[in-house]
Write a structure and sequence with these properties.
50% of the residues lie in helices and 12% in strands. By secondary structure, it is an alpha/beta fold.
Length: 156
C-alpha cells in the first residue's frame, strides 16, 4: 500500500461484513478491505466499534464474548477516535437540517475530526461529498471507485 490515499475510516457495515461468513461476496470484499486497512492510515470511530458489537450480537452473527473479543482486537489494530462536543454539535446540525441521520452524521463528523477524508460505507450515497468526507461504497457496481477503494481491493 502506498501512503498517497490519505486517512480514511470504515463504517460499521464493513466491520460486520468482515466477520459475517453468511454475507457472501460482501464478506469477501469487506474481509479483504479490513485486512489491508490495518496497514494503511485507517482510523475507526469508537461509535463504529460499539455499533459492531451491538449489530453482531443482536443479529446473532457472533456470541457476546466473540463480538467483544473482535471489537477489542480492532481497538488494538486501528487508531481510534471518539466523538467530541464539536462532532456532536455538527451531527445535531446535519440531522436537524435533514441531510443525514444523527448517527451517520456523528460518525462522519468524528472521522473528519480525526483527519479522515474518505469513509467506506454502503449506508450513504456513493460518490458524494459530505462536509469534506468522500463517501465510497466498496460494493458499488458503478465502476466509479476512488483510488483508495481500488487500492484496497487490489484493482490497481
Amino acid at each position: 500500500m502506498n501512503g498517497n490515499s490519505g486517512r480514511f475510516s470504515l463504517d460499521t457495515n464493513l466491520l460486520v461484513y468482515a466477520i459475517d461468513n453468511q454475507a457472501g461476496a460482501r464478506h469477501e470484499v469487506a474481509k479483504l478491505i479490513v485486512e489491508r486497512a490495518v496497514r494503511c492510515d485507517c482510523w475507526i470511530t469508537l461509535q463504529a466499534v460499539s455499533e459492531f458489537y451491538a449489530a453482531t450480537t443482536r443479529k446473532r452473527v457472533l456470541q457476546r464474548d466473540e463480538a467483544a473479543a473482535q471489537a477489542k482486537d480492532w481497538l488494538c489494530l486501528f487508531p481510534t477516535v471518539a466523538p467530541t462536543a464539536t462532532s456532536v454539535r455538527s451531527a445535531l446540525a446535519e440531522a436537524a437540517a435533514g441531510r443525514a441521520s444523527y448517527w451517520d452524521a456523528l460518525l462522519l463528523a468524528t472521522a473528519r475530526e480525526a483527519g479522515c477524508s474518505v469513509i467506506l460505507t454502503e449506508d450513504l450515497a456513493h460518490g458524494t461529498d459530505f462536509g469534506g468526507m468522500r463517501i465510497q461504497n466498496p460494493f458499488s457496481t458503478s465502476g466509479r471507485l476512488d483510488p483508495l477503494t481500488r487500492q484496497l481491493l487490489a484493482l490497481e
